[in-house]
Specification:
Blueprint (H helix, E strand, L loop, with lengths): L7 H20 L3 H15 L6 H6 L8 E6 L4 E6 L11 H12 L4 E4 L23 H19 L4 E4 L6 H9 L19 E8 L3 E4 L8 H9 L2 E4 L6 E7 L2 E7 L25 E8 L2 E2 L3 E7 L2 E4 L2 E4 L1
Parallel strand pairs: 1-5, 2-3, 3-4, 4-5, 6-7, 7-9
Antiparallel strand pairs: 2-10, 5-6, 8-9, 10-11, 10-12, 12-13, 13-14
Helix pairs in contact: 1-2, 4-5
């Protein structure tokens, strides 16, 4: 059924009941068209229009990040990408691979583990010299485009965005300089990405915790799981590594998810002062069998358009 033959009231009812992806399928249009119509209706009615996922994961006001989301996965794959810092005009090899693996591995859950948005112009840090920074609107539009590519590849599986410190810049800036905008649609980062469930952490089967950051430093993966007593899957440090920890309770893992960005990309150029950095581009594959996590696997960028995974290179 074309959008033109669907009334506004019918469209809003569909969206609230089924979310963007299923609404698009029922109407025979693209997800982008559905989001466009939703945004126009929100502007006209001055009321947020949220899908069924939003009712589960969000609450009113600018802070829409529930502490935890819980998932039970007996058998299947979870993809965890982190620290994309999406930048206008750049589509990295790691991002292309993440999209490809969303199609080929058919994950049960897709997680972007923080710092999807860089927020260069809303940072509390002063500019360095005359560095060029993209506008916030350009960054938001870029994030929408990249996440839409993931949404198309992942289809109807749950998609989660754990809040990162760079993501928080969006609402922190508004709360600081314009708190009166708190309850207006668009004041929350979540308003721009309705197909993604926001949270601080994701708990899988009660013993695997995915969150943007916990412990710091080069030994963060080891220290994080030692302190938490759980397998900890963190981003933030861009180092991408898997550290097993075994004791009387068995084996758990400290995992750093690396970065979906280019480690020498423009978003990092000035504040790193061209120093060497022990960072790696790629993402993590978590495989569950009978409810137990197998050894976490790394998808590592080895060159332009090429990643390695399970001993084989893949072109993307």
């Amino acid at each position: 059924m074309p959008v033109a033959k669907c009334s506004d009231a019918e469209f809003m009812e569909l969206f609230r009941a089924h979310g963007a992806t299923k609404t698009a399928r029922r109407l025979g249009v693209s997800v982008r068209s559905v989001h466009g119509r939703r945004e126009r209706l929100e502007q006209r009615t001055k009321e947020p229009i949220r899908g069924n996922v939003d009712h589960q994961a969000a609450k009113p006001g600018p802070e829409e990040h529930k502490a935890r989301l819980h998932f039970d996965i007996q058998d299947g794959v979870v993809l965890v990408g982190s620290d994309a810092h999406y930048w206008p005009g750049i589509v990295t090899t790691a991002h292309k691979a993440f999209v490809k693996f969303c199609r080929t591995l058919k994950p049960k859950l897709v997680i972007l583990n923080g710092d999807v948005l860089d927020g260069a112009t809303v940072s509390r840090h002063s500019p360095i010299g005359w560095e060029s920074r993209p506008t916030l609107v350009d960054e938001i539009e870029t994030c929408k485009a990249r996440l839409f590519e993931i949404e198309k590849a992942a289809k109807d599986v749950p998609k989660v965005w754990t809040l990162g410190n760079h993501d928080a810049r969006y609402e922190t800036r508004l709360a600081t300089v314009a708190p009166e905008y708190a309850r207006l649609n668009g004041a929350s980062l979540k308003d721009h990405f309705p197909d993604w469930q926001p949270c601080w952490s994701v708990w899988i089967n009660g013993d695997v915790v995915v969150k943007h950051r916990f412990k710091g430093g080069m030994h963060a993966p080891q220290n994080g799981t030692l302190w938490a007593g759980k397998t900890m899957v963190n981003g933030h440090l861009h180092s991408m590594k898997v550290q097993p920890i075994s004791d009387y309770n068995g084996t758990r893992w400290g995992v750093d998810t690396g970065t979906l960005a280019d480690t020498f990309g423009p978003m990092f150029q000035d504040y790193t002062e061209d120093n060497p950095r022990s960072w790696r581009s790629g993402f993590i594959v978590l495989t569950f069998k009978d409810g137990k996590l197998l050894w976490p696997e790394i998808v590592h960028v080895v060159g332009d358009g090429v990643v390695d995974f399970r001993g084989t290179t893949h072109s993307v």
